[in-house]
Amino acid sequence: MVEDRTIGGRIFAAINFTLLAIIALITVLPFIHVVAGSFTTSAELAANKFVLIPKVWSFEAYKFIFSTNTIFRAMGVSIGITLVGTLLSMFVTALMAYGLSRRDLDGRNIVNFLVVFTMLFHGGMIPTFLVVKELGLIDSYAALILPSTISAFNMIILRSFFQNIPEGLEESAKIDGCTDFGILFKIVLPLSLPAIATISLYYSVTYWNTYMNAILYLDDSAKWPIQVLLRQIVVLASGMDYSSTLDAAVPPPDQSLKMAVIVVATLPILMVYPFLQKHFAKGAMLGSMKG
Amino acid sequence: MQEVTAQPNAAPQLKIKKPQRSSELKKRIWRNKWLYVMLTPGVLYFIIFKYFPMYGLIISFQDYKPYKGIMGSEWVGLQHFQRLFTEADFLNILSNTLILFGMNLLFYFPVPIILALMLNELRGTFFKRFFQTLVYIPHFMSWVIIVSISFVMVTMDGGIINELLTYFGFEKVNFLLSPGWFRPMYIIQIIWREAGWGTIIYLASIAAIDPGLYEAARMDGAGRLRQIWHITLPAIRGVIVTLFILKIGSVLDLGFEHVYLLLNSMNREVAEIIDTYVYTAGMRQGKFSYSTAIGFFKSIIGLIMVMAVNKISKKMGEEGVY
After folding, report:
1. How buried is residue B92: exposed, middle or buried, by Cβ count under 10 Å (0-12/13-18/19+)?
2. ABC transmembrane type-1 domain: which residues (chain B) (predicted)?
3. Most exposed of A39, B125, B240, B262 (fewest Cβ within 10 Å)?
4. What is the ipTM, given to two decimal places?
């Protein structure tokens, strides 16, 4: 926008800025409230209503969280499936995207069609559950990863990115005796780092946020990832289904404890967000244009 | 066949050409063998986890018994599909789904557009970046986190919203268990999580507008609001229409997680949608076939909607969705 120095223009700019500031506050205040609340006691929370900076600092909630095995284990599961899942997804997605990016490959149109078709039509929850069950994956960590190894959407983004790499580069590498694997790993991937970064971060956010796969495919609560545990502690305890799902003799967890669990489940994303932020807008654009 | 033998000239030609083509094809395939090796894991994934379940849809025509399997279960024809339109339960979840979708269209859809227009009018790039960064954040939080945060805020025992209500002399409200509050909470959470992220595509198409247009408008004495109305909005009209059409295409597809997390025994009457009902009926009550039929119905409607909508969008001169 070019500077607009008329009075009307200034008033407009001021109102606009104020409204945006309010919107930004509404967006982040709940997070700040939760973080602050997790560092104070429930009594303090009740006395001060909206806590943004705790007057009395208390680490009780965190001490309690990490004194129990449950949350440690759930964090471990989530970290594990995020690392393994992201690596596996990236590997398989990159291989497929590269193969399909090569215009001289016979049959690529059929495969492309088969992939796009899965975005338009799918078997749904129960038939997918039956496949996972038939494969014997129920109650295994693999059930949290394998059914969502490739996102068709991410694969297509990566494929378009690979297609924009000049073909001459690949040709000359081939003349120098490079195999297709060599071209992918030594030339194409290093040239695609921004796309690789974006897609890996999309995948890792998805794995960290895994919830539906877990409630569908895991019966054993010892294998729950952090998101499922979070729901047990906060959502169910806030509704009245609480007593039916958790031990009725245990009182519902108090506010600051719930908040601490939310913080713990959110933290990894907040930590990668600054890195993510550089790339994702571009990735989202590419996806929405070419998807 | 007869014609070929009747024309002696044509036959040898065909004979020579055909083997040549297939041997060329074989050569090409052999030369690209490593590319096929690369495709294999991906193709296997799609076959196993996407196409096998499509095959599994046939249990919606059966009285599926897990111990008998797909091959051994009894065929019942369209019985489950007929049941859809006679059962009050299904008509209720269908209307719940449509109401939530309608609210989505009415209350959520315009928000990213307005927000993008506002962000675009910001002068300093620093503040623009800053606000964008902030409003994108919630998109990366899982629904569990978004729902959890709103739950600790509205809960009866010590939630900030209820504390404020009592502070100002109002009665406490049980947001979580009252059916009347389910829809407003649902839509507010969607706006909170997705509005910022939704601005990306609008901002990109605004960035492509020729600055000369604004210059000219200012010469003619147009203020900021007039510039938005006469230049920015018409310029992004195409994107708005495309996204609107896309949205219509996903009418029955509200997503499972969000609603499932808000669902409880008190608000089931208004909160149960197709996606959650498939889970409740299939996984909880073991009605595999009936529940698969519901999912099948949803997928078919989805496919028809997307294809129809794509056609309409092309007819209207907008870019197709695929």
Report:
1. middle
2. 94-309
3. B125
4. 0.88
